[in-house]
Amino acid sequence: MTTTATTPVTADADAPARGALRALLPALAAHRAMTARTCAAALLEQGSLVALLTLAAHTVGTAVIEGRAPSAGTVTTLVALVLVRALMTWREMDLSHDLAYRVLAALRVRVFDGLARSAPARVAGRRSGDLAATAMADVEALEFFYAHTTAQLLAAGTVLTGGSVVLATVEPWLLVAVLPVAALLAAAPFADARARTARGGRTRGAVAGLSADTVETVDGLRELLAFGALSGRRRELAERGRQVGAAQRAEATWEAVAAAVRDLLIVAAVLGVVAAAAHSVTSGRLHGAWAPAAMALSLSVLGPVAESARALSQAVALRAAASRVDAAVRAPALAPPPTAPSPLPPGPLGVLLHRVRFDYGGGTVLDGVDLTVPPGTTLALVGASGAGKSTCAHLLARFWDPSAGAVRLLPADGDPVDLRDVEDTELRRAVVLVGQDTPLFHGTLADNLRLAAPGADDRALAEAARLCGVDRIAPLDTLVGERGATLSGGQRARVALARALLVRPRVLVLDESTAHLDNTGDAELAVALRQEARTTIVIAHRPAAMRRADRIAVLEGGRITEEGTWEELTSRPGSALNRILAATPC
Ligand SMILES: Nc1ncnc2c1ncn2[C@@H]1O[C@H](COP(=O)(O)OP(=O)(O)OP(=O)(O)O)[C@@H](O)[C@H]1O
């Protein structure tokens, strides 16, 4: 019983979804109280300025026209408004950034969860730097959206509405001068939204490309140096940097044009307001002493609208980043969790592949694989390069699900259990895959061994290390460097195997795990593996490893074409195994 967990809803960076920014809003739901406080602070910040400017203008108006000095109450109110404005400017910035950083922290975890759900199948086709750009740069770019748009837009809308009601009551002509400009300011960011989104998309794409190239260059520095290819790579990186610069410059140029247009609209509003006020005073509808206050109110409600228009125009350019983040967050699980998990029975487990078909979206790789590995036995899976052996291993670890057929665990007693029905944690304890190039993590040897079994005690750790010869590499508290860079390939293989043994899996899948070891090391590890009864599937090119297995299965043309013991298959002239052995370099 399986289910598809989520559905992808967004497009890639080249075609950001129209609703990409809206899709960011639900992230605020987890911080409702803080969002409300931020909105309230933004409203008080903007409202206090409008009130301050209006009251100050009124004070000046009555002083000049009527010769009345401001009362103590007016002066106190003005001082109070100045203090409120200053306090709320600080509070709004503090709260909005706090809110944004909390949302971004949660978003980074959700992006990571999305990558984990897709890994390694979907991420296999993407570049690490591109993924890093989504997880870091794209998420970081959204800080602007969360810190500078949502609360400010709501506050600006409220201030404009409140101001409009007052203006409509005092002098409707002032409202006529203000509202069209406010509408144009609000609409301006969307006037060229498509082009703005595309420009933002080009910047995000260029940044992701630069990130991908940089990560790949750092990873491959040794090879680039060895082949004298550093200067070529340097040129490519410089070109990438130039592309990022050009994309950012195009955005900045158009942003400057938008700023000039906003300024023009504000100037038009000032002229309109002055004309409307003059008309109202001369026609006797507005007392001259009130005219400065009415003009100040008209223009000050436009301030937050203009500021929000600037923020919105920048936010529209973030659609591409929002799309990339949203796509990562909503990535559907390629191996969805079971809706009704079946517990695995205790005791040894074998493996059963039943008519398994699989492709990576291109040609068929596995075309009806039938294979049974009884509990407690060792099977060597053999085949030419590209035959699909690793694909079988990945299906056994449930990195992918087969497109047809089933992969099942086979208890000694009882019904086989489909991998799709096993809860992930239980599956990870039962089946462990060790690959050829298992990367280690920055930390000590012991940290790396404990990765799969954090609760393992020191005795178990020492035993696994001893069995696989890890204790002969260095003391277990030795740092191994990033990806285990301070160890040799063979030493890394020993750590990877010891790590797997520490889990005490019931099914162990070894995908050319000892390829980096010499023959002695390979034989040594084979002895270590025999210490416990378990089902083992070995993908191997070495005849010695094939020979040690109870049975050998040959994978050819997407199917198992031959199965038997070493003696049976090698004694058969023209057998597939003999052909493979003949083609294997000594
Ligand atoms: N992530 C992937 N995306 C697309 N195609 C893939 C992917 N991984 C493997 N393939 C293709 O699937 C086929 C089987 O690959 P697989 O790695 O399973 O072969 P293999 O038998 O393990 O080979 P080798 O002995 O060289 O490791 C190959 O043609 C390979 O190019």
UniProtKB/TrEMBL annotation:
Subcellular location: Cell membrane
Entry keyword Zinc: no
Keywords attached to this entry: ATP-binding, Membrane, Nucleotide-binding, Transmembrane, Transmembrane helix
Coiled coil regions, renumbered to chain: none
Domain ABC transporter stretches: 351-582
Topology relative to the membrane: Multi-pass membrane protein
Name of the protein described by the UniProt record: ABC transporter
